Amino acid sequence: MKKITLRYLLIIVIGLLLFNVLFFVVPYGERNTLHWVTYCVVIFALLSQLVFYRYSINDNDKKISLLYGYPIYKLGFIFLGIILLMSVLFIGLNIVFPIEPWIVVVFYALTVGLGAISLIVRITAKETIEEIDYSHKELKAFKKELNMILYQISLTESLADNLKLKKILEELKYSDPIGNTNTKKIEKEILEKSLELKKVISVTDSNIEDIENILREIHDSLKIRNQLCREK
Fold first, then answer.
1. What is the rounded CA–CA span in Å between residue 31 and residue 224?
2. 42-57: pLDDT as tens digits
3. Are residues 219 and 168 in contact, defined by beta-carbon separation less than 8 angstroms?
């Protein structure tokens, strides 16, 4: 990923050098307000690529993030391309007949403004997708982990025919595999109770009443969790 970043920076530096050479070496006649406004806007567009690139990735998982951030990455080049096209057009037309500087400023301002709005929209979309993806991966692990614990418990001879345990397994079977932010707390409680049950069962002289109480709590909590899933 560092190689990609360095190459991206190299492209921007080369772009800045080429533009400065073209701007100051090519004879456009006398530089006026239009030329200097165009110069500043193009330099801004080139440097803004750092912003587009920065928001197209994050520090957690850069490969996946870059995939989700591709629309931002692409938008940066589109924005730069439009600005360069406008700069060539304005400078070229200005050679044929003078263009009022305020017209150029308005067009550039509109382009920059629309680019900024598009960037914000894409950043918001990317963050939403990443948040959903992370939540799904995190929350989906709950059912798998609980299933494994309860399956191990069900192998215990004394609980093989326990009706409450069968009800819990049945409830879990038809549960939503993916919860939401509202279910995280109760899912943690269910897993803690399940581990507690596992410890209680491992004791040779464990009290059947304690086991029944924990099973009842798990079943009730699982029903609440499933209700919260339906409300998402």
1. 72
2. 999 999 988 888 887 7
3. yes
